[in-house]
Amino acid sequence: METVLNGLLCVAQALFLWLQSVVLFFVPAKYREKSVSGDVALITGAGSGIGRLLALRLAKRGARIVTWDVNAEGNEETVRQIRAAGGEAHAYTCDLSNREVIYKTAERVKREVGKVRAAHRGDIGENST
Ligand SMILES: NC(=O)c1ccc[n+]([C@@H]2O[C@H](COP(=O)([O-])OP(=O)(O)OC[C@H]3O[C@@H](n4cnc5c(N)ncnc54)[C@H](O)[C@@H]3O)[C@@H](O)[C@H]2O)c1
């Protein structure tokens, strides 16, 4: 009996997800995406790679970007690219392996830019420690 119920539940869920995807297919992307316009978004590891791409993407969508990276040069370059595209960005050199530095930088960001609404990690991955 339990197996039959689980099977029915599975079919119902699959049907629901299929219907949801059909409906969403006809809804334009701009109505499906959450607005980040005006939000302060903190991106760690924004000095290159995934973090930089994420920072540029969020800035394009109107977020006020705060970049943290241990590599000051790369971090500044990300900010330069965002500003050149008309966005707002603030670079902070921060070593994420140092708890004290993290707390101090967070205080500075709160004071100088405002309360962070969303944080994204571009510095960590499967090979990170
Ligand atoms: N690029 C890929 O296709 C890919 C795929 C899977 C996983 N990953 C993982 O995702 C993570 C990011 O990848 P990426 O290609 O963007 O790497 P990346 O080296 O281009 O960027 C990482 C950034 O993090 C910064 N960083 C590193 N240690 C830091 C620290 N202690 N404090 C502050 N900043 C620090 C670096 O200075 C650099 O700017 C990596 O851990 C990688 O292993 C990447």
Automatic annotation (TrEMBL):
GO terms for molecular function: oxidoreductase activity, acting on the CH-OH group of donors, NAD or NADP as acceptor. GO terms for cellular component: lipid droplet. InterPro entries: NAD(P)-bd_dom_sf, SDR_fam. This is Epidermal retinol dehydrogenase 2. The keyword Transmembrane helix applies. The gene is SDR16C5_1. It comes from the Eukaryota. Keywords: Membrane, Oxidoreductase, Transmembrane, Transmembrane helix. It holds the Pfam family adh_short. The keyword rRNA-binding does not apply.
